[in-house]
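Researcher: I'd like a candidate sequence for this fold, 88 residues long. If you have to choose between options at a position, lean toward the conservative one.
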């Protein structure tokens, strides 16, 4: 069975990440209104050359565009850190 974290990973590979960590933090939010509706809470770290020359807002928009149809119904909260390899 494919998890939502797996779905997030599979969509973000188009950015050719050097590093990609998707952590499902939903259990820490049990009982929260968003979690009760089936939405998940995720922490994402992605390192990719695709972010070179982009400010933080543009980086987030690039990631959100790939996940747009999952929000807000399946992804309730997304903590995102998007870096270039030089920023590690």
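Model: Candidate sequence:
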């Amino acid at each position: 069975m494919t998890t939502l974290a797996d779905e997030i990973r599979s969509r973000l590979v188009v950015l050719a990440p050097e590093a990609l960590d998707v952590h499902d933090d939903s259990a820490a939010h049990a009982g929260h209104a968003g979690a009760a509706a089936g939405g998940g809470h995720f922490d994402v770290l992605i390192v990719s050359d695709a972010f070179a020359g982009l400010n933080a807002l543009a980086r987030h928009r690039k990631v959100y565009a790939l996940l747009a149809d999952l929000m807000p119904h399946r992804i309730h909260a997304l903590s995102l850190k998007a870096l270039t390899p030089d920023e590690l």
